[in-house]
Amino acid sequence: MKKMSVWFLILVMFAGACSSSQVTIERGIPFAPETLGLTPGASIADINLNWYSNTGNSNVALVRFIDEDGKVLLTEGTIIPASEGKTAHKVTVKGLTPDTFYRYSVSNDGKNWSYEYNFRTPKTNSFRFAVVGDPQLTRGAQDSTSNLFSSDKTTAQGWKDTLTMIAASNVDFIAGVGDQVDLTSNGDEVEYRHFFAPPELRSIPFSPAVGNHDRHYPFLYHYNLPNVLEFSPIYVEAGFEKVIDKHAVDFVLAGHDHVYSRSHPLKNGVPQTSSSSSSISSPDGTIYLTMTTASGLKYYDLYNQSGNLYVKDNENYPYLVNNQKGSLAYAGENILNYNSTRNAPENAIIDPAMWTKATGLLPLSNAVHEQAKKPSFTLIEVTGNTVTFNTYNIDNTSRSIDNFTVTK
After folding, report:
1. Which of 33, 140, 185, 278 has a CA positioned 20 to 30 A from the CA of residue 101?
2. What is the helix (H) or strand (E) element at residue 206, kind and residue range?
3. Alpha carbon of residue 227 to chain centroid
4. Which residues contact 284 (CB under 8 A, 6 or more apart)?
């Protein structure tokens, strides 16, 4: 691929709550925070809130939760200076009851409150969440090569379309595997406003990982993160797979490459099976998933126009099913043989699906890959010892592009 990934979502730990649709019941003199979002709390009984407002009218950070019986839970948090002229409000609400409907609103002064939003805590015996990769919100357009555009062809609307589909799936929270916004240096508040614009984010907690485009100070201002773990990127790059093997991690959810891909269960870098079965029982290894963009910002081809990998000078990777290795073996000298069999010019543009079918030269680790050039998301449902994955393009949520179940 074109760039090297530094940040990954290693393991998603569920500690949040779920949602239903937004309501607009007025209480007092309502005000509208510039951005308002939820983040899973440190435990299933907690929820974190974070909102932005102008510094001039930001005295306190108060949240009011009202349960089904009308009982009010008032919680005060903290305010911190954020981007120029803005204040970030952070509140953690504790002691919520499982599988309970709440209404909540926020206030900067304890007198004037925002509109009320709906929020439902999860059940205790199972949960479902969505995974999205690289919304990478910009001020501009989706990838010009897209096979599916939003109504105005912007990433902002593409992100809204994806959130609408996710909300209809009744998820408990959303895990983001990085690159929530695009501009790296100092961030861009317009991009953050685009990110938080979908009303679904007032009711569905969003758990973000730090992507290479999120490495700026506004990231910390816009999210109220629980259970923060800091470690070196150098550490991850130098021994990422070894760390995963050491701790027997079942799944690694990643983004960055703007394609969808699923590996076989891997241990010590070796596939533990060569089957692409949709039913996997007690795998001895880790399944790695890579998500494509959830907004349609840009897509990376699996091959370039000559059929080669983007990283085409790697002598050691990928390992191939025919026991060869390296990018030249994958799509270098073999492309000449493939083209010659169909009387095609040496530099002919190939169809990746035909190439795979004709040669069988898939990376040894790879079970499934797809580049549909459409925004997509993955639904993960956890029930007892079973985890079920379904990945959808947003234009057809009745038919998954990849589905599998793991039972341990």
Report:
1. 33
2. strand 206-208
3. 18
4. 265, 267, 272
Q: In sequence order, which residues have a C-beta less than 8 Å from that of residue 342 and are 6 or more positions away?
A: none
CA distance 189 to 222: 10
What stretches of 22-87 show up as alpha helix (H) in DSSP? none
In terms of Cβ atoms closer than 10 Å to its own Cβ (0-12, 13-18, 19+), residue 73 is middle
Give dist(CA 363, CA 138) in Å, integer. Answer: 33
pLDDT by residue for the chain (408 residues), tens only, comes to 333 333 333 333 323 333 333 333 445 567 889 999 999 999 889 999 999 998 887 889 999 999 999 999 999 999 999 988 899 999 999 999 999 999 999 999 888 899 999 999 988 888 999 999 999 999 999 999 999 999 999 999 999 999 999 999 999 999 999 999 999 988 999 999 999 999 999 999 999 999 999 999 999 999 999 987 665 574 555 568 888 999 999 999 999 989 999 999 999 878 888 777 789 999 999 999 999 999 999 998 765 544 444 555 567 766 666 677 776 666 544 444 444 444 444 444 444 444 454 455 566 678 888 889 999 999 999 999 999 999 999 999 999 999 999 999
> Tokens standing for 83?
């981007």
Check if the beta carbon of residue 262 is closer than 8 Å to that of residue 288.
Answer: yes
Number of residues that make up the chain: 408
**Placement of tokens 């009984």 in the chain:** 45
Query: Closest Cα partner for 27 from 1, 77, 68, 63?
Result: 63
What residues pair up with 53 in beta bridges, in sequence order? Answer: 87
Which stretches of 114-204 are assigned E, i.e. beta strand? Answer: 117-120, 126-132, 173-176
Beta-ladder partners of 87? 53, 81
